[in-house]
Amino acid sequence: MEYRHTPVLLAEVTQHLSLNPGSIIVDCTLGGAGHAKRIADSIAPTGILVGIDQDESALTAAATTLRLGQQAILLKGNFGELDRLLVEAGIPFADGFLFDLGVSSPQLDLPERGFSYHQDAPLDMRMDPLLNPLTAAHVVNEYSEEDLTRIIREYGEERWASRIAAFVVAARSRRSLATTLELVDVIKDAIPASARRQGGHPARRTFQALRMEVNGELGVLESGIRAAIRWLKPGGRIVVISYHSLEDRVVKRVFAELARGCECPPDVPICTCGREPVLRLVTRRPVVPTADEIAENPRARSARLRTAERV
Fold first, then answer.
1. How far is residue 85's CA from residue 24's CA, in Å, rounded to a whole number?
2. End of a domain among 200, 215, 230?
3. 295 and 249, same structural domain?
4. Which of 79, 121, 133, 156 could bridge across to 209 with cysteines, CB 3.0–4.6 Å?
């Protein structure tokens, strides 16, 4: 299947990164290179694009999407190891970073990856099947009921988390859950019929929670953002698109912390703490997709974009 990807908030990303010819831009979540293609065109002919992804098929597709002659460095890895990857890229600094979090459309659309609750496939959900031994099948069949409840409640913000976990444990006691649609059936049984008629597909939140657990997404997000900020030159910008309130809260908290200056009490005439802001907040509130974009690309509906600038 062709590695297709419709970039979310493309115009807004282009605007917020303040792209110029000669810039060095790092796309930490390359995907199908939808954003990267626009970035590369905007910084040509002397700019450098560094594209990072842990999915080998994404890197292969990106190499095809980007025009021959564009200065692009494509690296396989997770942005949790950003320092190592950027040393490998051989760049001295960056003028901008882009993080487009979550799972990309091609990963959802390929049944064998196990991300989708619409198609039957093995319970996998690994972004990097070669390096990550933990699968969704292991989580579903081996985690305790208490841990399943915690993961589904925290990462999926699912009100029926404890009931879903209990139904999963009961189902796996009879036979291991091996496929996505087997799990979907258990989730549907766990959620009362009246609740299933509201809020989209009943398995959406649980699948999101499992994906985040399998790939350790929240664990690497903060370290990746902080590393990116260290590599930013003054005036450089970091743009983060999140699709989940937990992700957005991490981004908002780190940005706010690094944008704070003096913390001395207001009655102290001279600053003694010496704290200076590292960032300037460009977006006080997150930028969201327009109604037209959501109609054209429904997967954009939960996107939230935040931008900060290195001072």
1. 15
2. 215
3. yes
4. 156
